Amino acid sequence: MIEISNNAYDGVIVNNATLPPNKDEFKKEIVRLIQSLTNKKLLWISIPIEKSDFIPILTDLDFEFHHCDEKNLILIKKLH
């Protein structure tokens, strides 16, 4: 199950160590998470390079690229 923590910008950050192992499960969990965040402004997620096949799922859900490093792409979704 995807775990989250609150941040200082009235948003939440996904703990990428808790990402599901496959795309189907990831999509179900991320959609459920988005639907549950009715009182937050932003959702941040860092996708490690080995799970890069999750990126199209996120962009289809209106996540935008924020920044990256050598091994991770950070995406953000504005919830309000």
Would you kindly provide a written description of the structure presented here, covering whatever features stand out?
This protein is an alpha+beta fold. It has one domain: Gcn5-related N-acetyltransferase (GNAT) (Aminopeptidase). The protein is 25% helix and 32% strand. It has two helices and five strands, in the order E-E-H-E-H-E-E. A five-stranded mixed beta sheet has the order 1-2-3-5-4. It is globular and about 30 Å long.
Give a concise summary:
The protein is an alpha+beta fold. The protein has a single domain, classed as Gcn5-related N-acetyltransferase (GNAT) (Aminopeptidase, 3-Layer(aba) Sandwich).
Estimate the global geometry from the Cα principal axes.
globular
Provide the CATH top-level class.
Alpha Beta
Q: Could you tell me the radius of gyration in angstroms?
A: 12 Å
Q: Please, how many helices?
A: 2
CATH superfamily: Gcn5-related N-acetyltransferase (GNAT)
Describe the protein's topology.
Elements: E1 4-6, E2 11-14, H1 23-36, E3 42-48, H2 55-60, E4 64-68, E5 72-78
Parallel strand pairs: 2-3
Antiparallel strand pairs: 1-2, 3-5, 4-5
Please tag this protein with its features:
globular; 80 residues; 32% strand; five-stranded mixed sheet; alpha+beta; Aminopeptidase; 5 strands; 2 helices
